[in-house]
Amino acid sequence: MYILSAVFFVLFVLFINPVFLGIVNIGNIVGSLITGFLTAVFLFHNRFMQLISSLWKRPFGKGVIAVSGGLFTVCLILALVISFFMLKEINDKPTGDSTMVVLGCQVKESGASLMLRKRLDTAFDYLTEHEDMKVIVSGGQGADEPMSEAKCMFDYLTSKGISPDRIYIEDKSVNTAENIEFSKKIIEKEGLFPDITIVTDGYHQLRADMFAKKQDIRAYNIPAPTSWYLVPAYWVREWFGIIYYTIF
Questions:
Q1: How many CB atoms lie within 10 A of CB 117?
Q2: Using CA atoms, how far apart are residues 20 and 12, in angstroms rounded to an integer?
Q3: Using one digit for the tens of pLDDT, what is the confidence trace for 157-215?
């Protein structure tokens, strides 16, 4: 029990850590609450079992345990299924001609954020190996950003040696759905390859691919690496994003 408690405590630290970096989202909130609860359950296992036993003796308590257990099981299965498809999309590498679309991320006063730089470095490596490939950098300007994400990405790639005539700027989108929708318009206007290769973080690939399918676009994926200490929070956040998009 103490080993399990220690495991969940480590996970709790991973989920809560992004808060100290200024990152607060549904992923690290839910993740920290669940792992914190499970840490306490296994640390105080005997007391927890006594509480369950006491509840089970009451009709109302049996209902609470049954509903809680059923809800936990459904959520666990749903999380595993979504994670399977997320992993599957990460490995959907390009097999033919396509137009690259790099999805934007936060731009700071000092320039591209770490996450955005990793996406751009991944794009740069692939573009260097495929010299005929065109790329759309996609992302608008948030209220807290000094310039559009697309302009920042254009400057970054050209500074590393990618020819400006290979890069198309899409600087109006404010979310992933618009990234794909507005990039499609550029593809049609400029006569680029209709299939796309999306460069974004691995956890984000499935949702981006879902938006591409909605636009009748065949999408391949090249995952950019995510800092290990951010993966749990963003991975869990993506579960909620995918569920929301599927329902609405």
A1: 16
A2: 13
A3: 999 999 999 999 999 999 999 999 999 999 999 999 999 999 999 999 999 999 999 99
